[in-house]
């Protein structure tokens, strides 16, 4: 299975903003979330969104057959 870009620019930048926000919250939330497991899950979710920003590829979109990338 080849990795082919399937995210539009808007989708990528939205994922980037979400990834930065969620990752920062997971790292610097203070005492808002006291469960370490939830913090780790949020951190993983944020990092996965940042990876999608950098790669332009979403594995869930590929499995579902979805592409928001503009066709040229």
SSE diagram, text form:
Layout: H1 9-28, H2 36-55, H3 59-64
Helix content range: 55-70%
Tally of alpha and pi helices: 3
* Ends distance: 22 Å
Element string (H = helix, E = strand): HHH
Instruction: Describe the largest sheet.
Output: none
**What is the residue-mean pLDDT, rounded to a whole number?**
91
How many strand segments?
0
The coarse silhouette is: elongated
Domain count, please report it.
Answer: 1
Residues in β-strands, percent:
under 5%
Structural class, from secondary structure content?
A: mainly alpha
- Which spans have pLDDT < 50 for at least 5 consecutive residues? none
Using only CA atoms, what is the Rg? 14 Å
Briefly characterize the structure.
The protein has one domain (9-60).
List keywords for this structure.
mainly alpha, 72 residues, 3 helices
What does the model show?
Helix content is 64%, strand content 0%. With 72 residues, the chain is mainly α. The protein has one domain (9-60). Helix 1 (9-28) packs antiparallel against helix 2. The protein is elongated. The model has no long low-confidence stretch (mean pLDDT 91).
